[in-house]
Give the backbone structure.
Amino acid sequence: PTILYQRCVFDAESFEPYPQYKLKLVTSVDEKLSAYVKGATAALTQLARKRQLASVALVLIGTETNQPLEKWEYKIEVEDGAIAGGDDNKKVSLDVDALSLNLQKIMQQIMSACAFLPDYPESVMPHIEVVGVEGATLDRTDDVPDFEVGEQSKIEGGRDMRFRDVSTGVHKVSTGLQFVDPDRSLAYFTN
């Protein structure tokens, strides 16, 4: 919800402060948005536990042009030594303080990036795109409801940013952002 709040995808009244990782993040108070976020999180968690999730992206799409304007992508890799097939009984030694510190730093980077991203001349809508690991069959209706499964959106002439990687001991997550660059896509911003 923090990206949706920071990028003004929904009204500010749809969110309330939620302190996490020693940061002032937000959570949704809008019933529809909360249900969507909870459902998406549950579906993605199941795919990650099954080791079927290669990447997930939150794409902000222009409501007038139907073009992707921003893509927040999270690439997920199963780490060496993690048991394939989703053995939930595997105990992973996890340094919770180190993980919290890494997540805090990633959230700081995301919040900082939001501060200098361009304002678009149209409103945007969120869209979730999911890519499975090689050989995984993702069923849109069961495993990933309301998600686009398969190839992810590309932003032609966009700018790319990379964020700090984080490891849980089972998964390594690499975060990146791609967005329409007003300097490279001047025609978009002047129409």
User: Anything to note?
Assistant: The helical segments are 2-6, 31-49, 96-116, 186-190.
